[in-house]
Amino acid sequence: MWTVSNNLLVMSCQVVRLLLKNTKADANQTAVEKEVATTESVKKDDLKEVKVSYKVVYVDKKTKKVVYQVEKTATLAENVEEVTVVEGAKELVHAEELHRYSDQSGESLERTVTLTRDSKDVVVTYEVEEFDNKEAFSEVAKPQEEVKSEISYTVSYQENGVEVASEEKKVTSQRRLQLCLRKSLKNLLLT
Predict the structure, then answer these.
(1) For residues 141 and 149, what is the distance between their CA atoms, to the nearest angstrom?
(2) Do 125 and 64 touch, CB atoms closer than 8 A?
């Protein structure tokens, strides 16, 4: 009898140990699950809409000095990890500081940058060169300068294929030259 009860006692102890082990494992697992849930909620908070800034810099190829720079921002929408930004060197046409500069590398002006929520100190750089022919730029009419043009032509009146009358006409036009002149000049100097 003692043997049977002794075996039962040993088996009971083993069952108790297993139960205690499982309880500890469940407690540890619950703690880990709580930690994961907390981390996930923090991550969800991190995924709110965020603005990330970056710089576009134009550097003189010869002097290596910054000619112009502008800071821009991109928005990462909610639950988005990264955003791709495509820059096209629009400032070369629009920024007054760059009116005597161009990108003469022959490469595409498109620059692609991928920004993340942790992005810092992101810089898109263009190496630009000053026009060699500065006199040509100054000889062209300045923006908003008045320009006069005149067209002369002959009007011929016919009846049954025979000229019955003709007259000379003249049209004169005065306009103010617009700022798009700079772009035309760049194209002219680059050809």
Answers:
(1) 14
(2) no
pLDDT tier for residue 141 given thresholds of 50, 70 and 90: very low
The pTM for the full model equals 0.49
Distance CA 107, CA 61 (A): 15
Amino acid symbol at 65? K
Is the Cβ–Cβ distance between 83 and 54 less than 8 Å?
no
Let me know how long the chain is. 191
- Neighbouring residues of 32: CB distance < 8 A, sequence distance ≥ 6: none
Place of tokens 């002219």: 188
Between CA 88 and CA 169, with CA 140 as vertex, the angle to 5 degrees is: 115
What is the DSSP track for 102-131?
Answer: E--S-S---EEEEEETT--S-EEEEEEEE-
